[in-house]
Amino acid sequence: MNKQNIVLKLSKITNIDPTFLQRFWQVGKLYWQSEEKFGAIGLLSILILIVVSTTQIDVIVNTQKGNVLSALTAKNSSTFWETISYLLGLYLFLVLVWAAYNYIRKKLTLYWRRWLTEHFLNHYFRNRSFYQLTQSQRELDNPDQRISQDIFSFVDGFISLFFDVLYATLQMIAFTAVLWFISPNLMIVLVVYAVSGTLVTAGFFGKKLVKINFDQNKKEANFRFGLVRLRENAESVAFYRGEAQELSHIKSLFDLVFKNYNYLLLWQELYLNGFVKIYEFIPQIIPAVIMAPLVLSGQLDIGKYTEAQGAFLILFWDMYVITRTFNQLTGFAAAIERLAELNYFLKEPKNSDSCEIVPNSTIQTVENSHLAIHNLTLYTPNYQRILFHDVSLTLQPAQGLLIVGTSGCGKSSLLRAIAGLWKSGTGTISRPNLEEILFLPQRPYMILGTLREQLVYPQVNTNISDQELEQILQKVNLPDLAARFGGFDVEKDWSDVLSLGEQQRVAFARILISQPDYVILDEATSALDIKNEENLYQHLYNTQTTFISVGHRQSLFKYHQQVLDLCDGEKWEIKCIG
Ligand SMILES: Nc1ncnc2c1ncn2[C@@H]1O[C@H](COP(=O)(O)OP(=O)(O)OP(=O)(O)O)[C@@H](O)[C@H]1O
């Protein structure tokens, strides 16, 4: 039977949406088919062994408890003390084994979480999916929360559920014989009671609670993101004096958390837990009611009665495992939904949104030694708007191209297309390998780290000396930057402590450090005064670098050999200078 059929059969038995089981399988199988599978299977086997052996010991403990009562009734002191010592030894052994079990179980959870987190992170960064995700029309909220929180909920939830169900099943096998042997009637009552309880829980509370938990995760993540966003934009908000607006927005996000949680409390704590408490109480009296006549008439020994009552309660506890762990289960199911969505997005070919609308219509990218554009027509990512038609140009090595045009005409979008971030449109872009091109956006990206790491970014290992770094800082007119902050190895929140113009100069220093063959500057000097801007362009002009700039200032023209004017609407023209 293939996996698809197994999933379908399971879904029929459990009355669960088959696509839900498929989603569970898609995420669940990843780790168990990975290179870590042998270690994981080893740990899993040890855990299963512990569970199997402790179930056997539980049966012995239950029988010995009955023996203690029988010895007391028969006033047999030596049997009583022998059984008590035996019981103590068994309990001590159980405690030690359970300590080891819990430790290994948490370790397995940790290893699985580490592997799955790395797996999702690798896919999140592959083909710049983290960027594509922000461009997608399909709603996929808070991928960060899915990676940081939902993976843990999934792994922890699965391991807990697996062992709860395994332990319950083994105990059922072991104790069914005990109870059946003493009282078949009690056994039949128990099965009917446990099955009906499980069906009510799964059928009535199931879908409702999964949905509420799913929404809760989403709303909590939105609230957290609102606070993070405020922190990231603290200065702008403070300048605007936008506290009232921000406060009300963040409060409204929390209000959604509050309302949904209230709803969750109602269903989880009041309805479900209320049901579970009543449901748990009744079995305490069922054995007494059914077996009392036998004990009173002398047909059943009090020790056997205790043994049967113990077996009944254990079996009841096992049979209603689904009901009792239902709260956990719904959180686990919500995590599966959220991870499966992310997994699907990260696996599917990019720009699929676009392809659904205009099939086979994407910009072709060809690797070449020089940069050229042939009949490029560019749309916004979901083909909603055309930005420009049929643009063609060639850029000779060591030359400069300046792109100008009115705001919103598509200047930055052309750079996005060259970088391969946007593909909606037609035509061909020939360009060198992206490794040879350095992009400088208008808002410089300052990494969290030391000044040295900041300057050599996006490279990580360079053997550049402090002296060379000092020289480069001189060139970009930041001669005292390292001294001001205590050297190159001091960590700061650089986007906070440097002015925008200083950040643009640090970003420009990256060009002089990494010396790429191609540089693309998207208004990368817009925050600088003309003198500083000219100084930077003069350095760039003196190198053999080929560069494309987007800018508005007339003073930039003299550093470029060609100007592409995207004009407005769908017209464009190219001019040669000098
Ligand atoms: N992710 C996106 N999805 C849809 N449309 C977008 C997206 N990003 C930008 N646009 C739209 O594409 C158009 C071109 O944007 P672009 O950033 O290229 O303009 P620009 O010419 O660089 O403008 P400016 O000079 O103001 O920076 C704008 O109308 C913008 O609203």
TrEMBL record:
It is found in: Cell membrane. It comes from the Bacteria. It is a multi-pass membrane protein. The chain crosses the membrane at residues 38-63, 83-104, 188-206. One of its GO terms (cellular component) is plasma membrane. Residues 371-577 form the ABC transporter domain. One of its GO terms (molecular function) is ABC-type transporter activity. Pfam families: ABC_membrane_2 (PF06472), ABC_tran (PF00005). Keywords: ATP-binding, Membrane, Nucleotide-binding, Transmembrane, Transmembrane helix, Transport. Its main location: membrane. Residues 66-331 form the ABC transmembrane type-1 domain. The keyword Ribosomal protein does not apply. This is ABC transporter domain protein. It comes from Tolypothrix tenuis PCC 7101.
